[in-house]
Amino acid sequence: MKNLWSVVLLLTFVFITNAQSKMQSPWGVYSFQIEGKIKGYQPNKDNGFITLRSYSIDGKSESNQVKIDGTGSYSATLSQSFEGDFEIGYNGRFIGLYSSPAEKITIEIDEATWKLKGNENTSIKILGKFSAVSKYIIDFENEKRNHQFKTEINWKEPTQNDNIFAKASFARMQEELDFFNDYLT
Asked: Please, which residues have CB within 8 angstroms of residue 81's CB and are 6 or more apart in sequence?
């Protein structure tokens, strides 16, 4: 009987070890394809790359620099194991977009209007499964950037104690939540 229990215990250990070695991540490793073009692209020393930033499930970011060819075209594959946000950066500006694994996204940026802040929806064209979600993200970020919140948090103020900082942070978060609710309606 002892030998039977020993064999069962040994087999259980082998199965568990084998299963753990095969399971790298419960989400797997997936990717999505991004293709795009810079409309009106004039190559110079400052605008030769697009930066694409994806995130892991624990919030760590991974940035990829993608070379833009002479015609303004670029193409890349990003790894992201789940549906969610990613960012695109060009010529000193970043905006957040949305994607899901195994999706193909086409992004066209208008060089002339990209430089003007608050003009993201007219300077970028997004095609793909979640392009409407990306447009909503851009709209919301523009509205939030232009909104005048009453509470300003000074992160570097040496005279404020933790209690004052916490109260100001809570007040600001409440204002942002109210703004978000107003935006939704």
From this structure: 25, 27, 28, 29, 30, 56, 57, 101
